[in-house]
Amino acid sequence: MNWWVLFQFLQWVSSTKNTPDLYLLNDEVFFAQSSCHQPINLDQPDTLLLDAALFQATNEARRAAKMPILLYNQSLDKAARHHAQSMIRFDFYSHQNYHQLIAINPVKRIENQTKSISRLAENIGQYSTINTTDWYGVRFNRRSKRYQYLDLESQTLCQPYTYAQYARYAVQQWLNSPHHRANLLNPSFTHLGTAGRLSIDPYQQRQAPFGRLVQNFGSFNLLAQESR
User: Fold this and answer.
1) Positive or negative CA dihedral for 83, 86, 88, 92?
2) 197 near 211, Cβ under 8 Å?
3) What CA–CA distance (Å, rounded) separates 127 from 218?
4) What pLDDT does residue 220 have?
5) Which of 64, 67, 167, 223 is the residue whose CA sits 20 to 30 A from 139?
6) 6-15: long-range contacts, CB 8 A cutoff, minimum separation 24
7) For this UniProt entry, which segments traverse the membrane (predicted)?
8) DSSP state letter for 101
């Protein structure tokens, strides 16, 4: 018997048991859904949809690069969500979380969720959720008591990305960075967890609203996986 084939099959069976429906779709089917192409409501974002869009955009990029797609993993997902939420709550941007020492670094965060990961990596990103041009203006609307962001050339308001646009934009930024690209396209990783959390009180600062995003990559220890 080919034990490696059996191991891969058992991984797939195990991963589908606790996998949300949005992660069971392939990226083409996922991005064909109309919900992906609605603008992000920055006051009340659909974080479940955003997290799934980041996951699917990652696999879309891997498929385009002829790399194996990654499977959803609940432990990596929880670690990613914890860190994205912490970066927004405590207003920092780093792999190191000095506000919660039990989750101080990627290894600790993932080990808090599972001891079965044999190899891991983390990408983080901070990107504007408004589709601004390279040069944009800011004005304060006294009626709405909110800042607005304008394309200086056309004098039109810059609008939020859709979920699909934002996820793909973030993944492209990671691909443009050699270190992040190496993690994203690493063929040794088999599983993935992703999360994005958005800035609190959007439109209340001159700085355009933004998201802080996390990708957690992992591959399982064979013996640990078999004993689960």
Assistant:
1) negative
2) yes
3) 24
4) 84
5) 167
6) 7/222, 7/225, 7/226, 10/225, 10/226, 11/71, 11/190, 11/220, 11/225, 12/71, 14/225, 14/228, 15/71, 15/72, 15/73, 15/191
7) none
8) G
Q: How far apart, in whole angstroms, are the C-alpha atoms of residue 205 and residue 77? A: 30
Contacts of 83 (CB under 8 A, 6+ apart): 97, 103, 106, 109, 122, 124, 195, 214
Amino acid identity for residue 134 in this structure: D
Per-residue tokens: 181: 């690209």
- DSSP-based three-state secondary structure for 13: helix
Ramachandran region, residue 179 (left: φ > 0; alpha: ψ -120 to 50; beta: rest)? alpha
Whole-Å CA distances, 76 to 96, 214, 216: 17, 10, 6
Residue whose tokens read 């600062």: 205
Distances (CA, A) of 78 to 89, 128, 195: 16, 23, 9
Q: State residue 1's pLDDT score.
A: 47
Residue in 110, 123, 94 with CA at minimum distance from that of residue 183: 123
Report the pLDDT value the prediction gives residue 80, as an integer from 0 to 100. 98
